[in-house]
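Researcher: Final request for today, and then I'll write up notes for the group meeting. The sequence and the SMILES for pyridoxal-5'-phosphate follow.
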Amino acid sequence: MKLFDVYSLFDVTPVKAKDCYVWDDKGNKYLDLYGGHAVISIGHSHPHYIASLSEQLQRIGFYSNSVKNPLQEELATKLGQLSEMDDYSLFLCNSGAEANENALKLASFHTGRKKVVAFEKAFHGRTSAAVAATDNPKIVSPLNTGHDVVFLPMNDTRKVSEVLAGNDVAAVIIEGIQGIGGIHIPEPGFLRDLAFLCQKHNTVLILDEIQSGYGRSGMFFAFQHAGIHPDIVTMAKGMGNGFPVGGLLIHPDIKASKGMLGTTFGGNYLACAASIAVLDVINDENLIANTRATGEYLLNNLKKSIKTAQVRGIGLMIGVEFSENIALLRKHLLEKKYIFTGVSGINTVRLLPPLTLTKAHADVFMQAVQELVDST
Ligand SMILES: Cc1ncc(COP(=O)(O)O)c(C=O)c1O
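Model: Predicted protein-pyridoxal-5'-phosphate complex:
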């Protein structure tokens, strides 16, 4: 049987990884500035993570959500403490799209409405409501077009205010930092306006922190830089350091009822063991402080050294936008300098490394880019 051919692949086969490094089947060692698409938060193959998952698997790997699972409670407690959102409730699922799908559904249940406001360049996932709120017609099938979604420009409070004035919007959904759209940070004042307007019009404010959350911005969630309290926060990528897990944090004003949401695999023992281990390591190794310090160093030095690019971001979520196509630059970074990077569109290099990245790693990357840029 062949694989369904939907991914453009680099000619690399990783077989081993440790902290910020990945090795391929030929023994080449790569510096990972991509984190497997913002997923590797605590570094590859962290010993505490491996031990937690292995020990859990020896005990019990799976049952169902029809029995008590104290690991879910432990995860909720630790997540509440570290994110400073312990008055919210946790619903666990399996991926980012599923988190947003559930968040939009919950907003619709809560308000009895179905209209959604999303933003230009947004990406929220590939399930039906999530992809309808994603600003990329190429991945929206006819089946997904029945949703009532309005796309507005980011940072335009007046336009949001006009649409919400109809009092018929279930949810406003926005990324804490736009990732796939090219690393665009909403203005803190705009996020505060959204929070105010949503409260005024009984609309649910959903912060998609699937890429920008879990410490990546230098705070637990990126929206916390603006000091707001959203109604729902969605999470995935960094949450399980590679184990598939997603979740929603739900404001106490939104009430649960039995059967309202549900999942077979969400919150299983292994997902919880992985997620608890991630929180333990983030806490014990001060990874959020490291993200702030290394991120600032990388961002400031990139701005100084790469004069031909626009550099933006915060923490370890950084975009380097060139005026030309960067396909060759990324290929050379991978094949000549052995560095993995991400991409947004055709001319932005996207950096989403493990939160354990050091200034020495950052120096290696900056020297490599400088050499490649100078040689073209
Ligand atoms: C901001 C954001 N939301 C949602 C998703 C979808 O997550 P998943 O691929 O786990 O479904 C992504 C994935 O890249 C994302 O970056």
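Model: The chain has eleven helices and 15 strands. The mean pLDDT is 97.
Researcher: Thanks, that's everything.
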